[in-house]
Amino acid sequence: VIELQQIIRNFRLGEGVIKVLKGIDLQINRNEYVALMGPSGSGKSTLMNILGCLDTPTSGQYLLNGRDVSKLIDDELAEIRNHEIGFIFQTFNLLPRSTALDNVILPLIYAGESRKVRTERATNALEQVGLADRMHHRPNELSGGQRQRVAIARALVNKPSILLADEPTGNLDTATSIEIMGLLHEIHRQGNTIIIVTHEEDIAQHAHRIIRLRDGAIENDYQNTDI
Amino acid sequence: VIELQQIIRNFRLGEGVIKVLKGIDLQINRNEYVALMGPSGSGKSTLMNILGCLDTPTSGQYLLNGRDVSKLIDDELAEIRNHEIGFIFQTFNLLPRSTALDNVILPLIYAGESRKVRTERATNALEQVGLADRMHHRPNELSGGQRQRVAIARALVNKPSILLADEPTGNLDTATSIEIMGLLHEIHRQGNTIIIVTHEEDIAQHAHRIIRLRDGAIENDYQNTDI
Ligand SMILES: Nc1ncnc2c1ncn2[C@@H]1O[C@H](COP(=O)(O)OP(=O)(O)OP(=O)(O)O)[C@@H](O)[C@H]1O
Ligand SMILES: Nc1ncnc2c1ncn2[C@@H]1O[C@H](COP(=O)(O)OP(=O)(O)OP(=O)(O)O)[C@@H](O)[C@H]1O
Ligand SMILES: [Mg+2]
Ligand SMILES: [Mg+2]
User: Fold this and answer.
1) Average pLDDT in the A72-78 region?
2) B residues 61-100 lying closer than 8 A (beta carbon) to A
């Protein structure tokens, strides 16, 4: 379902060029559950942004469900980002002046759902992450882990077939993390594809395959036999 | 050095009142190393904000080095926040349009240090967290873990005697976390007081004392005998 060929991503900074992804070759099939690990700064979020069609590689090819992403027009990309891919950002990226509920409703507005369906589904998603009693709080009236869970609910609400989760339990206590990993398992069980960035070995152990990045290149890519 | 008596913190939201801290009694002596744990939403960051003189309790008393914090004037509070207390925020709170270096220099400007000393100390602090080659990047040109390390460097640069760290390794891989915990140990060894919020048991094990919060009250407060 995902095929990356020689993906390179450079950033220009001042006079110099920073080579962040140095030629990534990667194939991920439908319904795989992949953990992406690696040191801080190794390029995990950058890779996730490319996978999520939020960033364009400097060179190389990205085939998503057989289609060359660089050849898609804006409308097709918007459709993919809204319906096929759910993204949980490392820094949440919530709208600061909207409530938790309105933040989770937003993707449903883009998807053209009716008001009744939107409120129902968003409320449901927030209940699933344990935030039923925080729906009308704005982000600055929520704890760090509660904001993270709003970001999770928002990513799930359009039932995407590919879920990209960048450190989804980074701000959660053990008990809440277990609940969230349970949610992800259910999504995986329904046939969807999950790619999770984590620096915690316990969380990575939930995945069937582990990919380790170092300095912008894949250092290791193996099946998780302890699962 | 820190004494909290019946600290209550309520938030008003719409028609209702949310009772976030429900009467905290706490005493922390000089040079203690305390881990503060508890479920998401239990009140850890709210408690840290009160300890850091960034928030005022609804009722109760906070004695810092024997002085009643509620009786201090603005200049005295600013002095405490700038010289005595270092705060690593759960959401980093970096200035988005300043470089990493300028973010770390900021507390030194408030402290009235000369330009030469400021640049030297800030550079040093960034080297200590492994960001020597990222000093001129702005936050949106840094990875999540790199931003976290800028926040750490900024908190240390005025050599505070009390360090409040809210999830300081939440976005860091294991190897980088070990380096940061090593830094904190050195600060502790020099006689300073450390309070660290963490949801990771491995990180909490570095502390000598563990305080567990639940629903805004202290559920458990014990010495870490495994250390
Ligand atoms: N301004 C506010 N208005 C209303 N409620 C608030 C406000 N700020 C925080 N809260 C509530 O206070 C509670 C405690 O928040 P706090 O940030 O202290 O939790 P925490 O223990 O740090 O959680 P986490 O581990 O998720 O970071 C949460 O339930 C949150 O929704
Ligand atoms: N806009 C940019 N300009 C220059 N360099 C950048 C930019 N964005 C990211 N970088 C650099 O790219 C590298 C990879 O960043 P990325 O966010 O992908 O890392 P990461 O693996 O997700 O790290 P972490 O675990 O800390 O979140 C970092 O060294 C970062 O400094
Ligand atoms: Mg990242
Ligand atoms: Mg918190």
Assistant:
1) 92
2) 90-91
